[in-house]
Amino acid sequence: MEGLDGLLAKKKRVAKWAPDRNGSLVLSSRANWFSSSKSSKKVPSHYVTSIIDGLKKLYVKKLKPLEVAYHFSDFVSPLLANSDFDAKPMVMLLGQYSTGKTTFIKHLLKTSYPGAHIGPEPTTDRFVVVMNGPDERSVPGNTIAVQADMPFSGLTTFGTSFLSKFECSQMPHPLLENITIVDTPGVLSGEKQRTQRSYDFTGVTSWFAAKCDLILLLFDPHKLDISDEFKRVIASLQGHDDKIRVVLNKADQVDTQQLMRVYGALMWSLGRVLNTPEVTRVYIGSFNDRPINEAPTGPVGKELFEKEQDDLLSDLKNIPKKACDRRINEFVKRARAAKIHAYIISHLKKEMPAMMGKAKKQKRLIDNLEDEFVKIQKEHHLPAGDFPNVEHFREVLSGYSIDKFEKLKPKLIQAVDDMLGYDIPELLKNFGNPYD
């Protein structure tokens, strides 16, 4: 397409938060994507950090003890560090090879980034995090995963085989001052997907999905089939449905009649995989640096693509404004998951015999894990949708001795209940979203 210049010219010039002489954040005049229309509004700098600092303190004081006591990091998600709270909002791109993921990023940045490769074959063979930095360089995965100021330490659990396929691409860019973009390897299809990757691709995708603020699923009009690996990847996004947006890229390569059929086929395929009654939002366009090919679709198609691109850019533009709310949402979701995990672990411990037959009882509990989940759900009046995936939980549980687990500690549960019921609402009451 023509790029962002023409589209963003229709909107007001956008400014950026910058500190003034008094230490307050004001909107600078330098053009940028992300801003508020109220250019005269001042936000004291301590307001911006207060909610995040409050969440850090609540996590260390009330939630982390519960996670440590019941091995939450081994079953669900690694323990959080300060860098996880301070990280910029992230956008992840997923899709089969050659659907235009890397080109989409270049289209947003209006320039290439270190380590970018584009071609019709599967060119991106690694996870690439594109983020802001003082100069253009690529940092290897093993190096970036051990840096305390980076939110990627949790990726060390996937081993060296993954970290060798992970890198960070840094470059100075005004867009990257506000968001971080994650480029992923093309999801394999056909015969290629039978060649197993050397790391847990679905697990890594799930880890990034939990950290991201927006997940873009890219499709090509000529690649609408959803392979087995792609099904597993989409299934791993369960619980993050509100973050998912679908992009039908390269739509100017087919005429209007074909586009209508392609759109219908895509919606049908997604309905079978996502398993939700709601219709997923699909953006239609051609996200590259070339002008729209009007020959197949005509001027009506061009107008449609430009409107769709405007909508998608608006979605991306709102990410920093919603980042604070998203952080709170993810924190509350994690706290609820940690509570349910504590109930599960303590229930399994309670079911173990005091003396004889521990091995047989453990095997029986693991085999009948679904029934145990139902018992816990009824006993504590918990929603069934909040329980973890049974197969994954069973797989991790088989490596533990249930007899060594902790009994239920009401004080730890009460601390998390108090945090959810009183501390977080009080935090929101005292310090609202600074970008509203």
UniProtKB/TrEMBL annotation:
Give the matching InterPro entries: DUF5600, Dynamin_N, EHD_N, G_DYNAMIN_dom, P-loop_NTPase
Record GO biological process: endocytosis; endosomal transport; protein homooligomerization
Report the locations given in the UniProt record: Cell membrane; Endosome membrane
Cite the Pfam families for this sequence.
DUF5600, Dynamin_N, EHD_N
Q: Does the keyword Glycosyltransferase apply?
A: no
Q: Name one GO cellular component term.
A: endosome membrane
- Residues passing through the membrane, by range: none
Gene Ontology molecular-function annotations: GTP binding; metal ion binding
Membrane topology category: Peripheral membrane protein
The alphabetical list of record keywords is:
Calcium, Cell membrane, Endosome, Membrane, Metal-binding, Nucleotide-binding
Domain Dynamin-type G positions: 85-320
Q: Entry's PANTHER family?
A: AT21416P (PTHR11216:SF31), EH DOMAIN (PTHR11216)
- What is the protein name given in its UniProt record? EH domain-containing protein 1-like isoform X3
